[in-house]
């Protein structure tokens, strides 16, 4: 008599009516999955997007042989299988990938524990004599990332405001995925957050977009939305960096780090929409 049959016999003798398909035999014991508690949720609450800074080959090497990792890697020109674009899964979604590092979004820190990371092959930027030059993403990449992100969001019911860039959760260290990532176009497809134009117009209240505003108002709005930012009322370097990260995501036409009226209006519109 094998262990499984013996275990069932013992249960039947004990008056237990547990069905066999609710039991799984382990090494010297068995698990009964008949009863499921409603007091649970998904481990994954965030989707974090990155660029790699390297080319395809070096990106794969860095994420498989270095100290960092991600759940998915999207090449500059994704390979295909039966006409379908292919993303590389480097870490199972059930496991923790090392992509976020020291990070915070809202009250949650160490986002590696609760997020899925997608790395996109992209050189990032170079600084030249005329300023910073950002490298664009390819249409093939963006199409694949859009499909992949939509599936991840659906599987884990990730809220729009929790689809974020590395620069949002680590603004003092990171700039990825940069101001050329099309956050608005993604949000229009249900991937991530974006403010309603009417709300932005309301909060702008007829002011010139470039008018500088009180730093404290912007600090409070960004903290409410999720950013880790000082609440000093002063435009210190840390505040400037966080505002710059916010602008890269939601106002990429101007990423000065200066708290102007348009930045304030966008921040307030996001808070009103996602944290009413």
Automatic annotation (TrEMBL):
The secretion signal range is: 1-19
Q: Which GO terms describe its biological process?
A: cell wall organization; peptidoglycan catabolic process; peptidoglycan turnover
Q: Which transformation does this protein catalyse, written as a reaction?
A: Hydrolyzes the link between N-acetylmuramoyl residues and L-amino acid residues in certain cell-wall glycopeptides
Start and end residues of each N-acetylmuramoyl-L-alanine amidase domain:
32-178
The record, for SUPFAM superfamilies, names:
N-acetylmuramoyl-L-alanine amidase-like, PGBD-like
Name the GO cellular-component terms.
Answer: outer membrane
Which Pfam family would be a valid example here?
PG_binding_1
Keywords, alphabetical? Cell wall biogenesis/degradation, Hydrolase, Signal
Spell out the molecular function terms from Gene Ontology: N-acetylmuramoyl-L-alanine amidase activity
Q: Would you say which domain of life the source belongs to? A: Bacteria
Entry-linked InterPro entries: Amidase/PGRP_sf (IPR036505), Amidase_domain (IPR002502), NAMLAA_amidase_2 (IPR051206), Peptidoglycan-bd-like (IPR002477), PGBD-like_sf (IPR036365), PGBDSf (IPR036366)
Q: Decide whether keyword Cell wall biogenesis/degradation is in the record.
A: yes
Q: Which EC number applies?
A: 3.5.1.28
Q: Which family does it belong to?
A: Belongs to the N-acetylmuramoyl-L-alanine amidase 2 family.
- Could you identify this protein by its name? N-acetylmuramoyl-L-alanine amidase
Q: Give the species this sequence originates from.
A: Pseudomonas cedrina subsp. cedrina
